Structures
1.
Amino acid sequence: MHISESQDGSLSGTIDYPDQETSGILITAITYKDLTLHVESSSIQCSYDGVLNKDSSEIKGTWKQGGGGLVLILKRTS
């Protein structure tokens, strides 16, 4: 997942699926408030809701797609 903030403070991003050799799927909705991240992509009918931990090293949440949910931990990479 790639998320960036524009100069006006709005967020945008894309999702990659390396194991499926797919990248650049548009994120259609992103909110980040009170350490909580919400992401949606309408093209693949998925969502993610997670919370940033105390030391800001990871976001732990639930990825939902196709009626099922799965725990997903996001960590910053370079």
2.
Amino acid sequence: MKTYVINAAADLNYPVPTLLGTTFSVNQQLPPGLTLSGLTGEITGTPTAITPLASYVITASNGTHSVTTTVQLAVSSGN
């Protein structure tokens, strides 16, 4: 589970391996202010609204094969 803080830039602290031709997508819109890069799979941005914990399914696909993982994200007030 990853909890972001409202109005604080997202930090990832882990590498995201990619292969040439791999694209990434998410099954639902991320919390306001956060985006998923379709090229790298990184979640970046600055969250702008408190959002309760939710599960997001990230899919990586190279046109022939795909793999999914579920991440849990929340945005808190930081207090």
